């Protein structure tokens, strides 16, 4: 993400936003993150609550991080040296659900 996002604030033009998951590796101080919203994401037969943290990157980029520690506060993004996390499919669905909901943003 950093290779794609970091040049954006330097470019003149309209504002833009991105909606990544807030993985453990994200340097929260860089974005000045603040809580923006809490909502539920439907997953199969249950719903998971999550938080949206918002921050900025330069003048033109607003970042909305999807924050759910049980999915994203892990040592590796998608797995460990022993293999993939067994819930990667669920994590993928969860991280993309807020982007499809205009009410969340």
Shape: globular
Order of helices and strands: HEHEEEHEEH
Strand order within the widest beta sheet:
1-4-3-2
Class per helix and strand makeup: alpha+beta
Q: How many angstroms does the end-to-end distance come to?
A: 20 Å
CATH class: Alpha Beta
Main beta-sheet annotation: 4 strands, mixed
- As residue ranges, the low-confidence spans are 1-6
Counting structural domains, the number is 1
Kindly report the name of the CATH homologous superfamily.
Glycogen Phosphorylase B
Number of helices: 4
Q: What is the share of helical residues?
A: 10-25%
Describe the fold and architecture.
The protein has 105 residues and is an alpha+beta fold. The protein has a single domain (2-104), classed as 3-Layer(aba) Sandwich (Rossmann fold), CATH 3.40.50.2000. The protein is built from 4 helices and 6 strands. It has helices at residues 2-5, 28-31, 69-72, 88-96; strands at residues 16-18, 34-43, 46-57, 61-67, 79-80, 83-84. The strands form 2 sheets. A 4-stranded mixed beta sheet has the order 1-4-3-2. A two-stranded antiparallel sheet has the order 5-6. The longest helix has 9 residues, at 88-96. It is globular and about 40 Å long. Mean pLDDT is 79; it is low at 1-6.
